[in-house]
Amino acid sequence: MPDSLLHLSVADMRRNYAQAAPGARVALVSTQAAAFQRRAADLLCATRTYQPSGLTVRPGGLLEGVALAHKDAFQTGMHAPGRGRPLRDEAPGPMATALRRLQEHGALNLGALAMAEHACGATAENPHGAPLANPLDSAAAVGGSSSGCAVAVAAGLVPATLGTDTAGSVRMPAATCGLVGLKPTPGAIPADGVAALAPTLDTVGVMGRSALDAACVYAALLPTPTTASALPADMALIERELSRPRRWRLASTLATAGARADVAETMARFERGLPDPQRIGLRPAPDLDRLNRLAQIVLHAEAAATLAGSVRRDLASLAPATQAIALPGWAMPAVWYRHALSQIAPLRAAFLATCLADADLLLTPCLPQGVPDRAAVTTSSPDFDPRALGALHRHHAYLNYLGLPALVLPVGIDAQGRPVCVQAVGAPGSEALLLAFAHQYALPFSAILQR
């Protein structure tokens, strides 16, 4: 069963399916599913795989015949989400709207992908599952909590996937594996049927090997386009829209990021290589300490409520990262939480007025100290460095708090041969613009593999 069916783009998968004779399409799906099952078992990145007999393709959609797999946080209609815990019999609820929309566009769901327990964790560390290795560099970390998603996409098992992002959990793993990771505006992708952690911060996001792969999946998730920022439900039109020439107005905080020297030079080279943008220039870095502190208050308070049943029933079996996120909320004064919520709107308005004034997008660092070693961010390792772990989400969590869309894209390779990504931030509803920027300027994944 050829693994050549893996490593395909969304467009390639759809073309192969469309060009196959009707009688050969079942065999194509079966072969693709078998290849996914075999490679997922090798990589330990899936918690469930689905048999070909249960896979049906709805004709005529944007993603007809496209094989995907998603974070084990979604109701599939067949199984309740595992949420990074040992699997147990649990009555499933209705299929999550996001998965249903993909299915209606003809996509296949080949499996559920590994994640940090209850989405609590910035890395692939999970005491209930086998450790996941970064397909690009086995010594490098895989970000979390959508770690299985990043491994599956970077290893070529699927071209794109859905994850969840509460404090960077789509963008961090995308950055460590050289992928495009989109955190949309809250509510852009329906969250019903998705395991919650902190509803104010939770966002369903998309990860892909390319911006076009991510854009095709994102477009299938949307209702009928009604705004100028929406993407058309046609693959050729999506690519044309992403490729359309624009006079970009860019603001940047990259030069003030305090990045490691080789990462800073890679980001600077990327900025110099942008073809004649109408550069707005440097902007002051936002007050990350304050914003992230407020984001943490919301995270702890809402996680304590969301996970209350698990804390009462299973406290001793919960992973240390889950306890560290859920337990502080039980002791937190309610006035702190109310204050944090009350500050979201004014702080978002201030951010837009300063950092994005007269600019389409703001470029920010993603992992300014580079992709860390896996040992440095694994709490059970003798080489554990809490500063390295904290650096993973420092430039991500505040955007969940502000409710702004953001996208990470690879722009180069550091001195260790690991990907360097930057983060682009836009105003609410600017997902199509973010994807277009990544489509035009991201380093192709093939170049990352050839590093």
Structure description:
By secondary structure, the chain is of the alpha/beta class. Helices cover 39% and strands 13% of the residues. The chain contains 18 helices and 11 strands. The strands form 2 sheets. An 8-stranded mixed sheet has the order 4-6-5-10-11-9-7-8. A 3-stranded mixed sheet has the order 1-3-2, with helices on both faces. Helix 3 links the parallel strand 2 (67-71) and strand 3. Helix 6 packs antiparallel against helix 17 (431-441), helix 9 packs across helix 11 and helix 9 crosses helix 12 (334-342). The radius of gyration is 20 Å and the shape is globular. The protein starts with 9 loop residues before the first helix and ends with a helix. The mean pLDDT is 93. InterPro entries: Amidase, Amidase_CS, Amidase_dom, AS_sf. It comes from Achromobacter aegrifaciens.
What's this model, at a glance?
With 451 residues, this protein is of the alpha/beta class. Helices cover 39% and strands 13% of the residues. The protein has helices at 10-19, 25-43, 97-104, 147-154, 171-176, 211-221, 235-243, 261-273, 288-306, 308-314, 320-331, 334-342, 344-354, 374-377, 386-393, 397-402, 431-441, 445-449; strands at 46-49, 67-71, 108-113, 160-165, 180-183, 203-208, 249-252, 278-282, 361-365, 406-413, 419-425.
